[in-house]
Design brief:
Layout: H1 2-29, E1 32-41, H2 45-52, H3 58-61, E2 65-69, E3 79-84, E4 87-92, E5 95-100, E6 104-110, E7 119-128, E8 134-143, H4 145-153, H5 155-176
Helix pairs in contact: 1-4, 2-5
Length: about 180
């Protein structure tokens, strides 16, 4: 009888640990982080769109997205190489979620193609301004378990990514103007 009580107690402890672990994973999966940048460019929407939609030319001017190949069509997967100060992703294969001609390119990238592990929903947006210039907005919403852990332990990753966005924005401005 004593052995049965001990076994039952062990099962309860193991069950409690498993439930706690699942609750922690669920909480962590709701981790999120946004990186947002914008820059004013003295060029037309058409000029800026021609540059950001020409993926093959990224290697000539883009210090953040150093290679990009693929067709700008919803559902298509791009083949890219990303480089920021702390990380190089090669290959990086995001899936296009939205392509609004002359306005926006939006994709989602996932670590190991597993949803809610580390998802990055990336946007490149062109907005016309009343002075004839455009505002180029680049932002990314990160979500998932690894995002929560990265927020806790690796602040540099997001800082480096923000700097990568800013370097790309500045290079785009120079190329367009």
């Amino acid at each position: 009888m004593n052995k049965m009580k001990q076994m039952s107690r062990k099962k309860k402890i193991i069950s409690s640990i498993c439930i706690a672990f699942i609750v922690i994973l669920i909480c962590l999966s709701f981790g999120s982080k946004r990186i947002y940048t914008e820059i004013e460019i003295n060029a037309s929407e058409e000029q800026v769109w021609a540059i950001i939609s020409d993926l093959e030319s990224y290697k000539e001017w883009n210090p953040f997205m150093t290679e990009a190949h693929g067709e700008l069509k919803v559902g298509e997967q791009l083949n890219m190489k990303l480089h920021n100060g702390s990380l190089t992703l090669d290959p990086f294969n995001p899936t296009l979620l939205q392509v609004r001609q002359g306005k926006e390119i939006n994709w989602i990238g996932r670590v190991a193609n597993i949803p809610r592990l580390f998802d990055g929903n990336h946007h490149l947006v062109i907005e016309p301004m009343s002075n004839g210039n455009v505002k180029f907005i680049q932002y990314e919403d990160f979500q998932g378990i690894i995002v929560s852990l990265t927020n806790l332990f690796q602040k540099g990753l997001f800082d480096d990514t923000q700097q990568g966005f800013e370097k790309m924005n500045n290079a785009l401005k120079i190329r367009a103007e």
